[in-house]
Specification:
Layout: H1 2-18, E1 21-27, H2 35-48, E2 52-58, H3 61-73, E3 80-84, H4 85-93, H5 101-105, H6 117-121, E4 124-125, E5 128-129, E6 131-144, H7 145-151, H8 162-172, E7 180-183, H9 188-197, E8 203-204, E9 208-209, H10 213-227, H11 234-237, H12 242-247, E10 251-257, H13 261-264, E11 271-274, E12 284-293, H14 300-312, H15 314-323, H16 335-342, H17 351-355, E13 360-361, H18 369-384, H19 390-406
Helix pairs in contact: 9-10, 14-15, 15-16, 18-19
Length: 407
């Protein structure tokens, strides 16, 4: 009888184990430095959800989407996986993602105030929410307070415009001593945003609008810094990265991302940030990643629970902030979760990181995204090097993109 009871107990334990729901999770935001944090978060999630087990795999960004597409083609996609905005649109348009609307509507832990609207809206497609934002980064204006003081220029404020940027850059610039007023990259990721700020924007479907008066004004603003001598040319950089130039105290202002905060902690001068100044209107750039559920998943409820945990749990938010593992896309109304980040020290104006999201614009996205970006970058480079005028470059970009998308 004892042997029978022991066997029955073993079968019961085994039955409970087999009754667990397994969620397969695929990540590119988890590099080798953050695997221990991911494993700890999985353990925390499983303790809160004893019926669910999470199995994870990771891949570097360069390999991630090839493997993901292979898994889908083989009929074995992960239940939950990560997408950046540009690739999200492609996957959502192909019907490969499960809609989250009903689960969100019935979820008392999620409300309209949980996330910044721009971050949440980035992962909706044709009015349907398919993903929850798990991390984000914004682009801001960094400025060297010591160089501003030396030039007798007031620090940037929230009401600065492009005219203020140029005036300050001219006052600070001293190329003979390798000091320049500003560096702002002339490339696709800056141009689409600056075009929007100029009152235009890059439109690539269904109609194409690249060569417009507003977009010409935007590109004139970008390359005008080089022509005015307030931004170093490629030759003047001499292979030095723009962030190195800022850290060396040779740039008054730098348009760059918040991922530079930790690096600039080592600077031997005072610096701070503001939301990017406005052209005809304000526009800022942000990068965002979301967790999504695969449409074929057989464990959609459990998968959604893991997505919600990644996006909105205080445990994940605290871990990301404490370990510099990007930022949770939570709104400032989540003051308890975000206060450690806001109180962390330089830059003092960390609120600008979140304020920038109010003006975030997303880039144009097409199925042939890398080719689109290559075409536009080639034309921008021609302007930067002086081999084409702004008008010639944008006319060529318009024609080449139309040809690309017609193929």
């Amino acid at each position: 009888m004892k042997a029978f009871r022991f066997l029955a107990a073993l079968l019961l334990v085994a039955g409970l184990a087999f009754a667990q729901t397994t969620v397969n999770y695929f990540s590119f935001t988890t590099d080798q430095d953050h695997v221990p944090q991911l494993e700890a978060l999985i353990a925390e999630f499983e303790s809160q959800n004893p019926g669910i087990q999470v199995r994870y795999s990771t891949a570097p960004f360069a390999d991630y989407f090839t493997k993901l597409q292979t898994d889908f083609a083989a009929g074995n996609p992960p239940d939950v996986f990560e997408l950046n905005y540009e690739n999200f649109v492609t996957f959502a348009s192909r019907g490969t993602l499960a809609p989250l609307g009903e689960r969100l509507g019935a979820d008392p832990a999620i409300s309209a105030e949980t996330f910044y609207p721009a971050a949440l809206e980035a992962f909706a497609f044709e009015g349907v929410q398919y993903g929850l934002p798990i991390t984000f980064s914004t682009v801001v204006l960094f400025y060297n307070q010591d160089l501003f003081d030396a030039a007798g220029v007031a620090y940037p404020t929230d009401d600065w415009t492009w005219e203020d940027v140029m005036a300050a850059a001219e006052a600070i610039s001293d190329p003979d001593n390798r000091v320049w007023g500003i560096y702002q990259p002339v490339q696709f990721w800056e141009f689409y945003k600056v075009a929007h700020a100029a009152g235009g924007g890059l439109q690539v479907g269904p109609e194409i609008a690249i060569d417009t008066p507003e977009n010409r004004a935007a590109l004139e603003y970008l390359v005008g810094k080089i022509e005015a001598g307030v931004m170093p040319t490629d030759a003047q950089l001499s292979g030095m990265a723009n962030e190195d130039l800022f850290q060396a105290g040779q740039l008054g202002m730098l348009v760059s991302g918040i991922w530079m905060f930790e690096r600039f902690q080592q600077a031997d001068f005072a610096w701070d940030i503001v939301v990017e100044p406005a052209g005809e209107r304000r526009a800022t750039h942000f990068f965002a990643n979301a967790a999504v559920v695969a449409a074929p998943s057989q464990v959609a409820d459990a998968a959604y629970a893991w997505v919600r945990f990644l996006a909105a749990s205080p445990e994940v938010a605290a871990t990301r902030i404490a370990t510099n593992w990007e930022l949770p896309a939570l709104s400032l109304s989540n003051s308890e979760a975000l206060s450690p980040y806001l109180e962390r020290g330089a830059p003092d104006n960390r609120e600008a990181v979140f304020a920038s999201l109010a003006y975030a614009v997303t880039p144009p996205v097409v199925d042939r995204q890398p080719e689109l970006q290559d075409v536009i970058n080639q034309e921008l480079e021609a302007v930067r090097f002086g081999s084409k005028t702004v008008a010639q470059a944008l006319e060529s970009a318009q024609r080449r993109v139309a040809s690309l998308l017609a193929d």
